[in-house]
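Protein record

Derive tokens from sequence
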Amino acid sequence: MIQRSEQVSLLSGFFLLEYLRSGRFLLELGMVIASFVVFFRPTGTPIRADHFFTVSGLFGPVLAALITSAIIGMGDRPQAYIILSHNVSRGVYLIGLFCSSCSAVLTMYGILCLLVALFNPVAELDLIKWVLATLPLVLNISLVSALTLLLSPLILSTGWRLFVLTLIALALSSNVVGGPLLNQIEQINPFLVTILRALQTLLSGPLVPIFYGYQLSIIGNLDHASAWANLLAQGLLLFAFLGLACYAFNRRDLIFSAS
């Protein structure tokens, strides 16, 4: 266990160093600075906490998807065969990619918070309130990073990626496939509507902790039991994503990109 933890730490540091050496971090750093200028620049009026976490709650997961995709590309190289030949399991390699991605995203988030604290502090937001509001946001960032890792060509084949993306689209379709459109489908085939609603309800369940975590980040109040239950649900969902990614990675043929 200790050896695996050390391997994960070394791999995370290695991928972070590759991320810095590639210069790719300048793109995400530019996005952080641009978001500060657009949404949080000093205007003479203090920023409200709900405004800050509304924006950062959306910006953080987007940044997680971008950075994770970039680091996965650095891990999907023929040089990885050498790493895996030195008593490093596939699971450790995958967790190393995940940890380095999350570390890079949280560093960018910390830079954004530092810019806001220095140039346009959030009104009535102390360290404790910031930590409580940041906790569900960090879990959402980790979930998006894990999902991006799961959907990468390194883990799933094209067919399986399309299948998972179809399930996600179906889970999110309740806001699109509804109202007049759903009524038209019901007139043609009522049974199809019943199946569609059942699938939407079933598949949208795992997304509830993510959306509720976003709301908790905006509210910044974890005084009730449902808030901590949702944090637990976010954590369990994260372990499920990582476990599924490790399982799929262990099952498929080990073929890294030649580019």
